[in-house]
Amino acid sequence: MDFSVLYIGSGQATWNGAVPLAKTGVKIGVIEESQYGGVCSNKGCNAKIILDKPLQLIDQIKALQGRGLEGVPTVDWEDLMAHKHELIVPQDQHGKDRLDKAGITTIHGHAEFVDAHTVRVGEKTVTADKIVIATGLRPHRLNIPGAENFANSTDFLSLPHMLEHVTILGGGFVAIEFATIASAVGAKVDVITRGNQILKQFPKEYVASVQADLKQSGVRFIPDMNVAKAEKNADGSLTLFGPKEFQLTTDYVLDATGRIPNHDQLNLEAAGVKANAHGIEVNEYLQTNVPNIFAAGDAVDKNIPKLTPTAAFESRYLAAKFMGTNEGPIAYPAISEIVFTSPRIAQVGVHLDEAKAKPEQYEVVSASYDGDWYRQVENEQGAKLALIFDRQTDRLVGAAEMANAAEETINTIVPYVQMALTKEELNDFVYVFPSIAYTLQRRLPLV
C-alpha cells in the first residue's frame, strides 16, 4: 500500500487528525483538488468574519454616539476586500505547508475511487489501507431558468464592488449573515425565502428581534416565494419571476439556498460506499459500510450540526482511533453554534424553543442585560440570555444568548454544559472583573 491512511480533502476534517497521526510515523497521504485547508480557511467562515468585524465595530460606535464618541465611520468595501485578500490568499499555501512539515504526502487533483483501497487522481492511482472521505459541501444551485446568472457564497466573499441592490435567496446562516453585511455596507437588500421563517435552528424570539432590526435598517423580507425563473437585462440587472405575479429587478442575486455534499463526484459506487442526499452514511465509529473507509466533517450524513469545530473534533477522534488510543464510538461533547448577525445569536446544548415546549422537563431562566452596568459601558440595548436546567437534576443542559458578544458568553458556558454543573456549582467560580464571564455569573440564579 502507498499509504496507511489516505484522506480525500484537506480541510478541518482532515488536518486536525492527519497532522498528529503523521507525527507518530504513520504514512499519510492527502488529496486536494482545490485549496489546502478547505472551504472554511479559504472561502468561508474566515473570510466572512474579516468582512463582518468592521461592521460590528461600527455598530458599537453608533451605540456610543453622544456618549463619548462623535461621528460614525463608513465602510470602504474595496479596501475591506483588499484586507480580506491580504489575510485569506496565503491560507492555501499555509494549509499545504502545515501538511508538508508533518511529513504528509500531498497530491493535487480530483479523486475518484477505483476500488475500496484504490483512488485515481488524474492518470495516477494510489492505494491505502484506510481511506477517510472529508470532501465537505458545496453551494446548492437552484434548478430554474436563468440560475446561471446567480452568485454563490464564494462569489460574494470576493465581490470586488458592492452593488446598489442585492437580492438573497434563502433564510439560513449564509443568507442572513450576508444580508447583514450587504445592508451595513449600504446596499438595498431583499431576502426571499420559500417558507416564512429564517434561521430555523435558533430561538424564534431572538430571531424575530434580529429580523426586526434588519427590517429597521432597510432589509426587505419576502416569504413564501418560490422564484420560478430569472432573466438578464441589457443593463446587466436581473429580473426574478414567481407566482402571484411576483416580479423583482435587482443588480445581484445570491443563491444561498443551502449546501450539498460532494460525494457524488467521487465514484463511490466503485468502492461500494453507501451515501444519500444528506451525505455519506457512517456508524458510531465514523465508519462506512466498507470497513476500511471512513468519513468525517460535513461530508457525513448526521444530525449533529455541520460546523468547522465539529469536523475538527471528528478528525481528532479518527486519529485517536487509528492510533489505538480510543477504541470506543465517537462521543460528541456539547456543541455550540452561532450566527454572525448584529447582534449575534449563539447557543449550546438543549435548544431554547425545545426547552420552552417541555416545561415539565426543563426550567428556563431568562435574563436581560439592559440593566447590567458592564453591558451599558457600550450602551448595548436588548441583549438577552437564557439558561436551561434539567428539572430533575438541577443541572445546566443548555443556553442561548442574543448579544454583541454572544460567542464569548456561550464559549464560557460550553464547559458548564459539558460538565453538567448544578446551579450551586455554577456560582463556585471567581472571574476577572469586569468581564463578560463575570457579567454572565451575575445573571445566574443564585442558590
Could you tell me the strand content as a percent range? 15-25%
Our Rg estimate from Cα atoms comes to 24 Å
Can you give the mean pLDDT? Answer: 95
Structural class: alpha/beta
Q: Name the poorly predicted regions.
A: none
Largest sheet: 7 strands, mixed
Number of strands: 23
Oligomer: single chain
3D shape: globular
Distance between the terminal alpha carbons, to the nearest Å? 61 Å
As a percent range, the share of helical residues equals 25-40%
Annotation field: number of helices = 14
Q: Can you describe this structure?
A:
With 447 residues, the protein is α/β, with parallel strands linked by helices. The protein is 32% helix and 25% strand. The protein is built from 14 helices and 23 strands. It has helices at residues 12-22, 38-43, 45-63, 77-88, 91-101, 153-156, 173-185, 204-216, 308-323, 352-357, 373-376, 406-419, 423-426, 436-443; strands spanning 3-8, 28-32, 105-108, 111-115, 118-121, 124-133, 137-139, 165-169, 188-192, 220-222, 229-232, 238-242, 246-250, 252-255, 259-261, 275-276, 279-280, 293-295, 336-339, 344-349, 362-368, 384-390, 396-403. Strands 1, 2, 3, 4, 5, 6 and 18 form a 7-stranded mixed sheet that branches. A hairpin with a 4-residue loop joins strand 19 (336-339) and strand 20. Helix 1 runs parallel beside helix 9 and helix 3 crosses helix 7 (173-185). The longest helix has 19 residues, at 45-63. The protein is globular, with a radius of gyration of 24 Å.
